[in-house]
Amino acid sequence: MDQDRIVITGIGLTSPNGNSLGEYRQNLLAGKSGVVNYETRYMGPVLAGVCSFDELRYQKKKDIRRGTRAGSIAVYCANEAVRDSGLDWPNVARDRVGVYIGITEHGNVETENEIYEISKFQYDTKVWSHHHNPRTVANNAAGEVTLNMGITGPHLTLGAACAAGNAGFIHAAQMLRLNEVDIAVAGGVSESIHTFGIFASFAAQGALATHEDPTKACRPFDLNRNGIVVAEGGGICTVERLPDALARGARIYAEIIGYAMNSDARDFVLPDANRQAECMQLAMKRAKINADQIDIVSSHATATEQGDIEEASALRRIFADSHAVINNTKSFIGHAMGAAGALEMLGNLPSFDDGIAHATINLDDLDPRCALPNLVINQPRELGRVDCILNNSFGMLGINSVVIIRKFQG
């Protein structure tokens, strides 16, 4: 039924190497990294994927002071998506718009900042900001979007660790199919680089990347990888039912044809190839396709040893005999946590038009345990035609998500 067909009609993003889909795609094809040297509290110099977007395009200075970095990223990306969609926004019924934004963690940044501030005053809590509570509630990022854009429909910030970007799209598709909303503003955001705690924790695990050249620090599948590069960013789309999009003559970027989420039930941080493979299989079953119909697989690989190995094992199980090529976007921008799934899917989406799979960069010495069929290494690959993309996104506490998008075929 066409009413159950869900399509992407507008795109807004900010990433460490681009603030629009065109700029982002150009830099991915050119092999340009967005990872830089970065200074964080107590730890000093680290490496990070840092965004530089116009915060004042859709917000006033007082809104930025009162809100959060995650909120600013979400507001920017959501407004860009709506503008790109061609929706007649002044006449849209805002009570029929839902906002579903994935995030990895929230509140860390604001709590760290407030504790740091009161430390200057002998920890006198009278100095504590009265804005702290609305800044740290879990629905903050999506809530800031509704405040900024006058959206009166439902909003949720979805905590799904590093599977959250995909989760935003999945929830949007479900709510549209249930007729709870007519338009969804969905995706994922990350403000992770602004909390020293995430850097300190990865460092304590021995999982924080270092390299003399920041642009070469994120090295998924490489034998000499040494950990994660933390990144900020956001990827948000307008998502609609197909008949509604067609009725208003919208540009359709892609159709969401399948998705799945499951849980490892194994470990706090160690992934499970079996559950990851099952998640991919379930998404393809729901999409009514098989592995032979996938053209590009966007891998989750974070440049941690066990994570890369487990996902490679799962990918071999599903795609060993497939023509699908496999690439990785984190190698360019680092791990954008809650935004990762969204940004990685959007980085591959233009393949429907240009027929090219962007590379996995910084892959100079392939770990034999991560050997994969058709891995796109260091240079983009011309595919000629791309019809279907599978996007992997996995997270801590064993949460897995997969979204499959297809070139719109009418």
Summarize the structure.
By secondary structure, the chain is α/β, with parallel strands linked by helices. The chain contains 14 helices and 15 strands.
- Percent in strands: 15-25%
Cα-based radius of gyration, to the nearest Å:
20 Å
- Name the helicity range: 25-40%
The major beta sheet can be summarized as: 10 strands, mixed
* Average pLDDT for all residues: 97
Name given to the CATH architecture of the largest domain: 3-Layer(aba) Sandwich
State the distance separating the first and last CA atoms: 13 Å
Shape: globular
CATH topology-level fold name of the largest domain = Peroxisomal Thiolase, Chain A, domain 1
Spatial arrangement of strands, main beta sheet: 5-4-6-8-1-9-15-14-10-11
Broad CATH class of the largest domain: Alpha Beta
The string of secondary-structure elements, in order, is EHEEHHEHHHEHEHEEHEHEHEHHHEEEE
Number of domains: 2
As residue ranges, the low-confidence spans are none
Task: Tell how many strands the DSSP assignment holds.
Answer: 15
CATH superfamily of the largest domain: Thiolase/Chalcone synthase
- Number of DSSP helices? 14
